[in-house]
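Hi everyone, sorry if this is the wrong subforum. Our group has a chain we'd like a structural model of before ordering constructs, and none of us has done structure prediction before. Sequence below.
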Amino acid sequence: MSGLLKLNTNDFVKGAVTAIFTAVVAVLWGASQQPDFNVFMLDWHPILNAAIYGFVGYLGKNFVTAENGKVFGKIG
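Answer:
Right subforum, don't worry. Here is the predicted structure as tokens:
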């Protein structure tokens, strides 16, 4: 884990994995909401947005937490 206000390569890899899982959840959620679900008819824009939000959110969380997992090194 990187330190407070620092990111390392491992953070980016884990962020990419988080983005993939977020996109999968978005697809599964879409599938559960449509009775005639068809993967080829999906609107991929919101799914890609969900993946980007997951990636940026993970990196943002790691950027503001210290090695001990506390936000800004104090809270938590």
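For your construct planning: The two ends are 16 Å apart (CA to CA). The mean pLDDT is 85.
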